[in-house]
Design a protein that fits this description.
Oligomer: single chain
Bound molecules: S-adenosyl-L-homocysteine
Order of helices and strands: HEEHEHEHEEHEEEEHEE
Distance between the termini: 23 Å
Helix content: 10-25%
Number of strands: 12
Number of helices: 6
Largest sheet: 7 strands, mixed
Shape: globular
Structural class: alpha/beta
Length: 244
């Protein structure tokens, strides 16, 4: 797994977060993919408060306990909500611009760290991966490395709360609901993305959307157990992963 940190000139999302925080306004955070049409992430949404979060995120925050790790914490929206609940959270991100914003917003323990950097040796009772948190795994072939890393980082009795989506609905035929998936190709949830904010262009990266059944199969192969905690409104769900 890659263990790099994002330089500011290659960090469109961090730039958008930084600008929105400092100027209360931001331009368009554009998303490109070879598999989809151009899209946009509303920057304001990255600053959502507890009450405007999707139910699966609120549930994850309510269930989180003990020493908590917020992975890929972005603007710190989840970390701040956890702090308000009196919980103990460490927020990590590979974006220095985002970490700077988290510190300014009052996240007590925000650090510039890549989840897969082995020199980060702390352990946690709850590991949170939210806003299609499975994305950070990148590809199904990275699942064993991901679960191995989680084994190092979880305290006894600890768990991971991760949200993801089953993208198979994107391949459904209109008329009969049958699904067109190229079985010889890559898994349909392996998406490549590239982001752009103003003149800042990021490199292309892999982002994994995984259906619950597939997640469960990989989990059990890697010595974990996956439970479905809650389904969202749009093919999304929250899973709890524990060492089996
Ligand atoms: N959790 C936030 C942000 C989601 S966007 C929210 O829900 O609003 C995903 C974030 O993960 C980005 O800020 C990105 O910089 C960070 N990220 C991506 N790969 C990472 C890694 N390997 N380790 C830590 N953070 C990572």
């Amino acid at each position: 797994m890659e263990t790099t940190i994002l330089p500011a000139e290659k960090d469109p999302m961090g730039a958008a977060i930084h600008e929105f925080f400092n100027r209360r306004n931001a331009g368009r955070l554009r998303v490109f993919s070879s598999q989809f049409d151009e899209d946009e992430i509303p920057v304001r949404q990255l600053f959502r408060s507890f009450s405007s979060m999707p139910a699966i995120e609120r549930t994850a925050l309510q269930l989180a306990q003990g020493r908590i790790l917020d992975v890929g914490a972005g603007s710190g929206c989840h970390a701040l909500a956890l702090q308000e609940m009196g919980k103990d959270v460490c927020a990590i991100d590979v974006s220095s611009l985002s970490v700077e914003v988290m510190i300014q917003r009052g996240v007590n323990d925000a650090r510039l760290i890549n989840l897969f950097d082995q020199s980060f040796r702390e352990s946690f009772d709850t590991i949170l991966m939210l806003m299609n948190g499975s994305g950070i795994i990148g590809k199904l072939s990275n699942m064993p490395a991901f679960f191995q890393r989680m084994k190092q980082m979880l305290r006894p009795g600890g768990c991971i709360y991760m949200d993801s989506s089953d993208l198979s609905y994107l391949f459904e035929e209109e008329e009969d609901g049958s699904i067109l998936i190229d079985l010889a190709g890559n898994y349909y949830g392996e998406i490549d993305f590239r982001m752009k904010y103003k003149d800042i262009e990021g490199d292309s990266f892999h982002w994994l959307y995984v259906d619950f059944e597939t997640l469960g199969l990989y989990a059990s192969e890697c010595g974990f157990k996956a439970e479905l905690v809650k389904r969202g409104k749009h093919y999304d769900y929250l899973a709890k992963l524990t060492v089996a």
